[in-house]
Amino acid sequence: MKYYVVALFDEDSYETITPIQRNLSKKFRGNRHSPMPYIALNILDNPNMEKLYTVIDKIIRPYKKFKIELCDDVSISDTMKTINLKILNEGYIKKINRSLRDTLELHGIHSKNLENDLSISIANINYINKENKKNNDIACDLVKKDGKNLTLKVSKFEIWKISNNKKETCIKSYPLKTF
């Protein structure tokens, strides 16, 4: 069974990104019932769950909520079959991703590496059109407001098991500290 370690946003960020998600889903003929936007950090195949819980808790515990900045580049991931928005200034999230990957490897939990650039998964797609594949980096004018890029606030990390039932998707949640 595949498990995903993902980063999620606060409610205000979801209100900001929902119109972008709807427009991109229409444009690329994405699935209408896509999950809420998230940043996929790791994909794990059949890990020892107790060990995984303690390792992730140890890594996430010292961090507080932080912001990320959206880029206006839209890309399509062939491996995950998703429409993605790239992230600018990926300092905190990149550091957490690297330490998570390295610590999981040290504890014997092997993960699949995702693309080098971290991105926000906006919508799932079943079929990748040849036109869309050629235009892999498309600029999205909805991401910029008043000449500035949108910022979203990461509020928690979760372990997901992808299933058809939305209630069974989240296995464990790790909220970040607030100051």
Automatic annotation (TrEMBL):
Source organism (scientific name): Clostridium cibarium
Stored InterPro entries: Cyclic_Pdiesterase
Gene3D superfamilies: Cyclic phosphodiesterase
SUPFAM superfamilies: LigT-like
Source taxon at top rank: Bacteria
Protein name: 2'-5' RNA ligase
